[in-house]
Design goal:
This protein is mainly α and 555 residues long. It is built from 27 helices and 10 strands. The strands form 5 sheets. Strands 1-2 form a two-stranded antiparallel sheet.
Length: 555
């Protein structure tokens, strides 16, 4: 039993008050023991799968590679090289737990090549707001685009409060000020400080059929749109069932007023009781029903979408927890637990429905705590495995999780990692996250332009860089200007560093690893060739490393 000690002061004396505490005060989903138990269940599951398939997994990734992976996944960018070296050289067997907790709470980084430090307040909320926003808005139209940063802020505010994912989704779907902050009379200032979820609705053009397809896909893992227009021979859902689900969103567009000059959306009174919809091209009206076929238990004083939100996030819902678990698994591994890896004409893929059931059950029991799942995943052997390319990589390597899939960085991760590699901590003060206090002003450093050029919907383990994207990375003025006027490179070019230290530092800054012997040999000759401008050559090396495939991948 542990104890907490409080100092109690009176006018003429001081007492020590010792209050015993018990482990029961910590919810089980935040318990290290529970996290470790779930991580072991996952590893035991894959051990059985490997034994049955007659395969052996690769070993663990080296500490430097693993920490880069962890840093990108949890903080959204490559680590500073001093922090990375600190992790590698730390012999504490509990360092993974400690660093995971730092990433999931307030987190302080040291600076690169200097004595300054910066604090990324609530790293988890900042980064995973972008992750969820990308998941929720898989396409963005011109109407929704100005409000995307406000959606990230809306998400961040809730993640910072450690809100359960179920409550977060209820806030999004249920009509009212939680969903339409910018529609309230106190707009636009309220939206600038608190954010708004209106982008989700504007991206679907506030149409019932588009919202039904988006909500079913994102929160239930059901691709319902195939049944929108006709009976699909391979779809589980009928056309009528699609429109029954769409009926929950009838009248959504009516809750929004006109778009004013100042980009404020005026909200009318939400439509509470519209519960049916006319199927286009027919004279048939259908009433709202859940995808399970159940008739909702309507309440006169409760809005239609509120009833839907309660059903979606109910622990008994057979879809919600599984869809969320699979989304998180795909984020960390780039591979779904259910979706086929190959085309339908190929052999049926190996899937893991039992593991999905286990994780969904644990996620529900944790009050839909995203951090509980994240903690468990990063503590598994499956997540910590090497992605080493010894031998040919096959489909089964990824499906059976015998090695870690190599994943492409998201546009946000790539941009923020470039800023870290080129500018270090100083660069993030202006460019790391979207500016939301003035929606008409572009983000400094062309972040918005960069994200628009690198947006893609490839599978994470099959991501490709287009020719236009490669040319943009090689030739964009933002990168060239900051390499030219770079304080870090000026320091490296000084006499305080030996030739080998310069090469080593560049690799640790950009790729978070030591150079290989052949890289040392080639680059020492390049940097210190007779008559070469050392400062310019260091800039060329930085540019070359940022443009490597290794930099653009999480491995």
């Amino acid at each position: 039993m542990s104890r907490q000690i409080f100092i109690v002061a009176a006018t003429s004396a001081v007492w020590l008050l010792i209050v015993p505490t018990t482990p029961a005060q910590t919810p089980f989903w935040k318990s290290k023991t529970r996290v470790a138990a779930l991580a072991k269940q996952i590893d035991d599951y894959f051990a059985a799968v490997h034994a049955e398939a007659g395969v052996s997994p690769v070993g663990a990734a080296d500490p430097g590679t693993f920490f880069r992976r962890l840093h990108i996944d949890l903080a959204g960018l490559i680590p500073e090289y001093t922090v990375s070296r600190g992790y590698v050289e730390d012999g504490d067997p509990e360092k993974l737990w400690g660093w995971t907790e730092r990433f999931l709470s307030d987190h302080t980084f040291g600076s690169t090549l200097g004595s300054q430090s910066r604090k990324l307040e609530k790293t988890f909320g900042r980064h995973f707001a972008a992750v969820l926003r990308a998941h929720w808005l898989q396409s963005v139209n011109q109407q929704a685009s100005p409000y995307v940063p406000q959606l990230e802020l809306w998400l961040r505010r809730r993640l910072d409060k450690e809100m359960g994912y179920d409550q977060l989704v209820r806030d999004l779907l249920a009509p009212g000020r939680e969903s339409y902050d910018i529609g309230s009379p106190r707009s636009p200032r309220a939206a600038q400080s608190e954010g708004s979820a209106i982008a989700f609705y504007l991206a679907a053009e506030s149409k019932a059929e588009n919202l039904a397809a988006a909500v079913s896909r994102v929160f239930l893992g059901v691709k319902l749109e195939c049944a929108q227009c006709h009976a699909h021979p391979f779809a589980k859902w009928t056309k009528e069932e699609f429109w029954q689900f769409a009926a929950f969103f009838t009248g959504t567009g009516a809750t929004f007023g006109r778009m004013d000059i100042d980009d404020t959306v005026r909200q009318n009174a939400p439509v509470l009781a519209q519960r049916d919809i006319l199927i286009p091209g027919t004279n048939k009206r259908v009433r709202a029903r859940f995808l399970t076929g159940e008739e909702p238990q309507w309440r006169d004083d409760v809005a239609t979408r509120t009833v839907l939100a309660e059903w979606i996030t109910d622990r008994k819902n057979p879809y919600f927890a599984k869809a969320t678990v699979d989304f998180l698994w795909q984020y960390f591994f780039g591979v779904s637990l259910l979706e086929p890896i190959l085309e339908p004409s190929d052999d049926s893929p190996i899937t893991h429905p039992k593991l999905l059931d286990l994780l969904a059950e644990q996620f529900s029991a944790s009050n839909f705590d995203l951090k509980f799942l994240i903690r468990a995943i990063v503590h598994t052997q499956a997540y910590q495995r090497s992605s080493g390319n010894e031998g040919q990589v096959t489909r089964d390597d990824y499906v059976l999780h015998t090695r870690m899939p190599v994943r492409g960085l998201s546009p946000e991760q790539l941009y923020d990692s470039i800023i870290e590699a080129v500018l270090g901590p100083k660069g993030h003060e202006e460019t790391m996250y979207p500016i939301v206090n003035n929606m008409q002003r572009p983000v400094p450093g062309s972040r918005a332009e960069f994200l628009s050029k690198f947006a893609n919907h490839d599978k994470r383990h099959e991501t490709q860089t287009s020719i236009l994207q490669a040319l943009y990375l090689m030739n964009n003025k933002f990168l060239a200007d900051r390499i030219r006027d770079n304080e870090n490179l000026a320091r490296l070019a000084s006499a305080a560093y030996t030739p080998r230290e310069r090469v080593r530092t560049m690799f640790l800054l950009v790729l978070s690893r030591e150079p290989r012997p052949e890289e040392y040999d080639r680059l020492l000759a390049f940097l210190h060739a007779e008559g070469a401008d050392l400062r310019q050559r260091l800039g060329d090396l930085l540019w070359a490393l940022v443009n490597t495939a290794e930099f653009r991948l999480n491995h």
